[in-house]
Write a structure and sequence with these properties.
The chain has 607 residues and is mainly alpha-helical. It has one domain: Cytochrome C Oxidase, Chain A. 66% of the residues lie in helices and 0% in strands. The protein has helices spanning 8-20, 24-29, 33-61, 72-107, 115-133, 162-190, 203-235, 248-282, 289-302, 318-330, 332-346, 355-377, 380-386, 390-420, 426-452, 469-499, 563-580, 583-601.
């Protein structure tokens, strides 16, 4: 795209350039961070609905004792893909949608640091998700649990392609996550507007920044574990074979050394979203902003020291048990600090219970319940009773659904008008909220009792003598209610896109920089890069320099490119070659990747 001239007509030209790329090809070749954010959001929401459907089938099977709706093998595939989908294909990329769209706007940037790398990360994520789910078409969906414990995943006990789909698919998704993480780290460090000091960054950007640092450190760990697993399966190595001198617990250490920081990769962005919503709808600044930021940093550090509380049942011994128990209790402190700060923010505020605020308050309540049961797991004797029971299922869903998903829903309702230029319907939004809130508790709270009464998780059926049929039926009814609530949300999206109230620049009266521009933002974001003079620029007189409606000079924006898509296809072809053990396919994929990366590196910057 040529640079727009510095006139009113040139602004129309900039918008016109965006419109000219509005066809399918325009979306495929886009490098605009806002469009990539929308692509991430739509794709992740689709996978979220798919993961929810898998969960509904699981709950329907467990609604009554000795049910035969689903067989054991199908059940194993469903719970494996449900966990994998929700963690890697839904919650993480839904957060990435906000990273892409919101972070550059909050820090006063035109785009991300590496626009083509940003597009590449999306297409790798999409193809990785399709690769994983294509396993259903071949009757070989992953069936070893989303945790993939050795030696159940060895070629001896899982000789088909099921586990290979899982291990290779996660490596594809890891490439997408690492590419995005490096991009956002570079963006936040180098592209902040003048005056946007680190301690003036919005809390969402801060929590996102910490999340990217954790991603960069955590994903290489799971990559090493997955490479070991694939070498064991493909080349006969013995990393996890005790009989051949390997260590079966090595997998658990590597997996949970990634897996527990992954929990904070999932929850920290939601904490950031809630930290933006609560001040806006309480009409007062966030209480203890520096403490919120520092506690997020502390979570990012201590999160690396607690992984083996997932392994108390393996018999690590009293010293290891004591250490991991103590550190697990310690990490509750910075988390608890955030909760008190959020409550203090609302205290004495002029609270407006709009839909985003309702989801934010529910996040605090439900995440606190999940946190309390997490502290219970910090005690090895208690954990030994609860390990591999439905009590653990209840805990993780209160953290990841009651926490991460509720926070993301809050963010969706909050930033929707900025993204699409129309407000979501409040009446439908509140119906959605109450059905989700009730359905979530009806689904998962009984699982605490089901687990304490002895029902193990990951079993496809149970006998009537356990006396758990009634509570399981209640849990299934709650799951159906959750599914219905999502239909209301989807209808709200559709209805509001046609009939929703037109959004002004700042419909909520928020304080951060993204609300200083039109809704939706123009292709170039800011007509001029603003100078920020306050942490709450829109709530402070003179907190930000005036941003004119018309750019006073030509605005250069990144051009579209199809090479990131081609590079992503090269990665997919390589991993398909690994799956079917075809050297030619693997080499061909590498060649496509190398050529396409070389081509995009030397493309002109502008369209």
């Amino acid at each position: 795209m040529g640079a727009p001239a510095a006139t009113a007509g040139s602004v129309a030209g900039a918008h016109g350039a965006a419109d000219a790329r509005s066809g399918v090809w325009g979306w495929i070749t886009t490098t605009d961070h806002k469009r990539i954010g929308i692509l991430y959001g739509v794709t992740a929401f689709f996978f979220f609905l798919l993961g929810g459907l898998e969960a509904l089938l699981i709950r329907l099977q467990l609604a009554r004792a000795d049910n035969t709706l689903i067989g054991a093998e199908t059940f194993n595939q469903l719970f494996t893909m449900h966990g994998t989908t929700m963690v890697f294909l839904a919650i993480m990329p839904m957060s990435a949608a906000f990273f892409n769209f919101i972070i550059p706007l909050q820090i006063g940037a035109r785009d991300v640091a590496f626009p083509r790398l940003n597009a590449f990360s999306y297409w790798v994520f999409l193809l990785g998700g399709l690769f994983l789910n294509s396993s259903f078409l071949f009757g070989a969906a992953p069936d070893g649990g989303w945790f993939g414990y050795a030696n159940l995943t060895s070629i001896q006990y899982s000789p088909g392609m099921n586990i290979s789909f899982w291990a290779l698919g996660l490596q594809i998704l890891g490439i997408a996550s690492l590419a995005a993480a490096f991009n956002f780290i570079a963006t936040i460090i180098n592209m902040r507007a003048p005056g946007m000091k680190l301690m003036r960054l919005p809390v969402f950007t801060w929590m996102s920044f910490i999340t990217q640092l954790i991603v960069v450190a955590a994903f290489p760990v799971i990559t090493v574990a997955l490479v070991f697993l694939m070498f064991d399966r493909m080349f006969g190595t013995t990393f996890f074979s005790v009989a051949a001198g390997g260590d079966v617990l090595l997998w658990q250490h590597l997996f949970w050394l990634f897996g527990h920081p992954e929990v904070y990769i999932l929850i920290l962005p939601a904490m950031g979203m809630v930290s933006e919503v609560l001040p806006t709808f309480s009409r007062k600044p966030l209480f203890g902003y520096p403490v919120i930021v520092y506690s997020g940093m502390l979570i990012g550090v201590i999160g690396w020291a607690v992984w083996s509380h997932h392994m108390f049942a393996t018999g690590m011994g009293p010293i290891a048990d004591s250490y991991f128990s103590s550190v697990t209790m310690l990490i509750a402190i910075p988390t608890g600090v955030k909760i008190f700060n959020w409550i203090a923010t609302m205290w004495g505020g002029q609270i407006r219970l709009a839909t985003p605020m309702l989801f934010a308050v529910a996040f605090i309540i439900l995440f606190t319940i999940g946190g309390i049961s997490g502290v219970m797991h910090a005690s090895p004797p208690t954990d030994l009773q609860q390990t591999d029971t439905y009590f653990v299922v209840a805990h993780i869903h209160y953290v990841l659904f009651g926490g991460a998903i509720m926070g993301i829903f809050s963010g969706i309702y909050y930033w929707w008008p900025k993204v699409f230029g129309r407000l979501l319907d409040e009446r439908l939004g509140k119906w959605h909220f109450w059905l989700v809130f009730i359905g979530m508790n009806v689904t998962f709270f009984p699982m605490h009792l089901i687990g304490l009464l002895g029902m193990p998780r990951r079993v496809y059926t149970y006998g009537p003598e356990l006396g758990l049929e009634q509570m399981n039926l209640v849990s299934t009814v709650g799951a159906l209610l959750l599914g219905f609530s999502m239909l209301i949300m989807v209808y709200n999206f559709w209805w509001s896109s046609k009939h929703g109230e037109i959004a002004q620049n700042n419909p909520w009266g928020a304080a951060t920089l993204e609300w200083a521009m039109s809704s939706p933002p123009p292709v170039y974001n800011f007509s001029v890069i603003p100078e920020v003079r306050s942490r709450l620029p829109l709530w402070t007189v003179g907190g930000v320099t005036e941003i004119p409606d018309v750019p006073p000079e030509p605005v250069h924006v990144p051009g579209g490119s199809y090479w990131p898509v081609v590079a992503a296809v090269g990665i997919l072809v390589f991993f398909i070659g690994a799956l079917v053990q075809s050297l030619w396919l693997a080499v061909g994929g590498v060649l496509v990747l190398v050529v396409s990366v070389f081509k995009w590196a030397f493309e002109p910057f502008e369209m």
